[in-house]
Amino acid sequence: MPRDPLIGLVGKPSSGKSTTLNSLTDATSKETTHPQRAIGYLQIACACRRFGVTDRCKPNYGSCENGTRSVPIELLDVAGLVPGAHEGKGLGNKFLDDLRHADALIHVVDVSGTTDAEGKATRGYDPTVDIQWLRSEIELWIEGNLMERWGSIKRRHIATKSSASETLQAQFSGYGSTTSLINSTLDSLSLKTPLESWTPETIHRVVVAFVSTKFPTVLALNKIDHEDASANIARIAKAYASEPLVLTSALNEVFLRKLAKQGYIRYLPGSDNIETRDDLIEMGEEDGGGLKELDEKLKARIEDLKDMLLYRFGGTGVVQVLSRAAEMLGLVPVFPVKNAHAFSISGNSSDNAAGSGPVFRDCVLVRRGTTVKEVARKLIGDAPLAFVEGPGGIKVSEDEVVGVGKFDVLSFKLGR
């Protein structure tokens, strides 16, 4: 069965990695079978908006607010990293072992420059260094493992008359590689030299390309509200102009979600707007939306957050980080339903005839390029599939490729 995507959060100690993880989850979502894994929530445009049934959308997991759906996605809290991890320094071996399970990475960078390479308090540190050495540590780890065995790898490659792709896949499978990923890596380099003639420089190029392909990375520039952050943001944006960058303030996202949960403010995670009791009363809601009264200290802090963070940067950026990671992975939301006419979980439309039954209860994330048949296999395994229906009961070929707004609402009918 195709496994669900896994996004790893990496970063040096005190960069805000754990706070970023907390800002992407909630207190109940961390109860998984793996102590370092948690369930985050990816915001997508739900199919309910497209079909005008937002009032009836009731997800089994996550939530849906006016057509903006929060879909569960698994996150991995990768052990803290320090320079020399590939040599076993710090939690190096643990970090690198955790890392190999991830499909994409979110590198949380302390853009304030107030922590050094090992996470110790300082001032004026250049965070571009962190980006460079984290990537280098991963490359050195994989390259070191490869070079230790290169003599025997080369002899076996010649003896078995394998292709470069087959030999590399055998070596990189432990890092979660696939044949298609290896082919993409080699194609990007346009190598003409036979593998048995590769020099150390060629092997290094292959490893660098493999790491780039296997671990696409979003740079989450955290602590943007610090006074020293602006200069560092500009420096990183210039040095890594081609990299996906997102400006974040994880600590403030956690703070705002906590206030919303306690009933002090109205706040949608990731938005650029906060509404207080006073705001809602001014807007005509006599009871202030049922929100609690804020004391003067909280009022002042919220006003500062609005001015210095939400209005200036358009939000805390945390939700956008997860969206960028999903975008890099090419994730497509698919909505399986039993009733292709009413979009319900029931095969009988009588319970939805009055337009009151819940719709689009489920949503799964698949990779771009996935076929309808592959979606079926992910959902129902090897159960016999008779046919597939789309909205309105229109038959859909198993060979069609799913996409956003295209073959993404599917009803699978079992039988032979």
TrEMBL record:
Residues 11-32 are annotated as: Disordered. Residues 5-268 form the OBG-type G domain. One of its GO terms (cellular component) is cytoplasm. GO terms for molecular function: ATP hydrolysis activity; GTP binding. Keywords: GTP-binding, Nucleotide-binding. Residues 15-27 have a biased composition (Polar residues). Signal peptide: none annotated. The keyword Nucleotide-binding applies. PROSITE patterns: G_OBG. This is OBG-type G domain-containing protein. It comes from Gomphillus americanus.
